[in-house]
Amino acid sequence: MKHEFDVDGFHYITQFKNSEFFFYIDTLKSRRLAYEMTKIERGLWDDPPERVTMTSDLTNTSKSDVHNVFKVKHEVLAFIDASLSRYRPYYFCFRTLELAKLAVYDHIATRLAKRYGYYKAWDPAQAKFQFFRLTQDR
Fold this sequence. Notes:
Blueprint: E1 2-7, E2 10-17, E3 20-26, H1 39-43, E4 51-52, H2 69-87, E5 91-95, H3 102-116, E6 118-123, E7 128-133
Parallel strand pairs: 3-5
Antiparallel strand pairs: 1-2, 2-3, 3-4, 5-7, 6-7
């Protein structure tokens, strides 16, 4: 399951695949420059990546004319809600690549676990939130 949307000229993609949620910016479909290349990359004439997952450090989403962070959050959470309602998986996970956003991701993880009846676990080695549905044996 996949959902694509545009906010402030950036083309975002959120996807549920193999029991994992992914969220990234598609740099090729974005109308704005979505990736800030390093001096080394420019020196080696590297092409920017097709997708960017670390939205704070390497992207231009913190510019002064980008104001719709809450719209992005709403779109992503609506997709997660729709996916969980549709598939009702016994297990799913998502990762954070930015430790600075760990508190936000943890808050969202706690909310999802309570809302859908999952047990939430944190795997610090992989920076992954894991969710398990508890079943009753009869």
